[in-house]
Amino acid sequence: MNILILGAAGQISQQLTTRLLNETDTNLTLFARNAEKRLSMYKNNNHVRLISGEFENELLLAESMKDQDVVYVNSDRNMQPILSAMKKSGVKRVIIAGALSIYDEVGGAFGKWNRSMMGTTPDSRKQMISDVENSGLDYTYMRMTWLYNQKGNVDYATTQKGEPFVGAQVTREAIVQYILDLLADPKRDLQASVGIYEPGTENMSKPSFY
After folding, report:
1. How many CB atoms lie within 10 A of CB 192?
2. 123-133 and 79-89 helices cross at what angle (nearest 10)?
3. % helix / strand / coil in the chain, to the nearest 5?
4. What is the pTM of this model?
5. Which residues on neighbouring strands pair with residue 5, listed in sequence order?
6. What is the 8-class DSSP label of residue 46?
7. DSSP secondary structure string, 60-86?
8. Which residues pair with 147 in a beta bridge?
9. Burial 4-25, CB ≥16 within 10 A → b, else e
10. CA R_g for the chain
11. Each residue of 60-94: pLDDT tens digit?
12. What does the pLDDT average to over 176-205?
């Protein structure tokens, strides 16, 4: 399998890269600003190709997508060039790291706290998710709750679009596990916007680390 990781210097991306290299024979293309410097630890790995670039560079994105099976996007902040490049390159499968409350789906005490921290969902984010959902791509949009690190904690649960979002926190390790589970089951959560949280945090009014 060939996987392109956009935003490869991020924490989730680096955890994902490590597990893919250690546990599979996947070939990775790691795309990031100043990739040669920031991701220099991978430059001698035969399963890794480094590309330095910006998400705004649609031509470079399309070139990077050639022969890829899956694109993982570590940030949803500038999706339009990525969606356009995917259509040009013919790659269909994309997994996107996003955030909760894009549909104003978080209620209760946690929803009130979350709005106090994040504000209301801007129209630009609502347009972004609409663009993703109408792209015709095999997307999985991950609506991640508040993130923290805890080695070995890969527990997660999911909700689907249209269901209330519950769960105040989840580990980055669990997000990586979910991505690996998607890769292992190509039919899972296709064209889906999936809420991801840690079981047992459903009734918390805010994350434990706040």
Report:
1. 16
2. 10
3. 35, 25, 40
4. 0.97
5. 30, 72
6. T
7. HHHHHTTT-SEEEES--TTHHHHHHHH
8. 170
9. bbbbbbbebbbbbbebbbeeee
10. 17
11. 999 999 999 999 999 999 999 999 999 999 999 99
12. 97
